[in-house]
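Board notes (copied after class):
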Amino acid sequence: MAAASTAAVASPACAAPAENPKLIELADALPAVAEAYHTAYRAYEEMHERHKAATPLAPDEMTDIGIGCPRTTSQPGEVEMNATLGYLYRKGEKFPRRIVRNSWQVRCEIDDYRRIKRQAKKTGDVAEYLRAEETIVGLKAQLAEIEAYEEAYRAARAAAHDDHERLYPIREQALHALADHISALMAEPDWTMEGLMIKAEALIVWNHLDRKEKIYGHLLGADWHASIAKSILHHAEAGAA
């Protein structure tokens, strides 16, 4: 009788049900998929911050102090931007500056004063001639500084754009891979409470992403919370039975 009892306990009919092996396989692979996303995300963010810090500042002669948020405040000129095309906030200044002069405008001013200089020469107005000459010298110095800034800014923008084009697709592919992996995991039936916990932990992985991209799950048509709620109800009903 003892041997028969032992056999009965050990029989498959009495053994605890095993978890869905596909669900366990997906759960085991999830950390590596999540880490691949975080690695790609960190690489992109580090690049982004590096290019922001490397953005050259426009010379003071080109700018006016910002008086309010660019989104809500009307002010002459264009908002000073960093190389990644975000607003450039200078240390100690509450709002971004406005760029109110550029090389094209300075060249036009130089041309205007050259005409004044020629006219003064024709009329023999020495004082006017000398004032125009002095102004032209000052404007040429400004032009050289502004042109140097504009060239440096174009180079910074080009470098930031190239790095964005290289790293952004990698980050997005890693994000999509993570979302697809979690969707596949959620789609697998959970046979035990262990499977339910696996799904809950996968949802926590998604909710702890470095950036708020959780909308991607909805774009897939996935309703992961509903999936977990359905599993809870299933196991509750099974337990009650």
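Comment from the instructor: The first strand starts at residue 63 and ends at 64. DSSP finds seven helices and three strands in the chain.
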